Amino acid sequence: MFTESFTPHFSDTDALGHINNTKVPIWFEGARTPVFRLFTPTLDTANWPLILAKIDVSFEAQMYYGETMEVRTAISRIGGSSFDVYQELWQNGQRVASGTAVMVHFDFKQQKSAVIPENIRQLLTEHLVESSPDAS
């Protein structure tokens, strides 16, 4: 599992003083960088082998400005050419959001999905969770 902590900016809030719901997918995408590095260590977009097929986000509690956030990222499924990245957002010891991104290993020259190489599959497996990470 990968973890990343940060403090939300004032500009991340909405008119009600909570964290704006549009920020969570952006934070989740940023926290997927260690997963991207498994495929492209230099993050060279000229050799990028991934596309995003689907995301879903569940909001579980209110989030606030000025309080540290932690994103937890794990792999929850590995298929032939696709895999699921499961993520949780925590604040003050409480899970406040969770979501899954379906990523596809993609050959841009052939414009089709490609089998995940065995060496990368092994790296993904190191971060595989049987179900959503423990809510503790």
TrEMBL record:
<keyword id="KW-0378">Hydrolase</keyword>
<dbReference type="InterPro" id="IPR029069">
    <property type="entry name" value="HotDog_dom_sf"/>
</dbReference>
<dbReference type="InterPro" id="IPR050563">
    <property type="entry name" value="4-hydroxybenzoyl-CoA_TE"/>
</dbReference>
<dbReference type="GO" id="GO:0047617">
    <property type="term" value="F:fatty acyl-CoA hydrolase activity"/>
</dbReference>
<dbReference type="Pfam" id="PF13279">
    <property type="entry name" value="4HBT_2"/>
</dbReference>
<comment type="similarity">
    <text>Belongs to the 4-hydroxybenzoyl-CoA thioesterase family.</text>
</comment>
<protein>
    <submittedName>
        <fullName>Acyl-CoA thioesterase</fullName>
    </submittedName>
</protein>
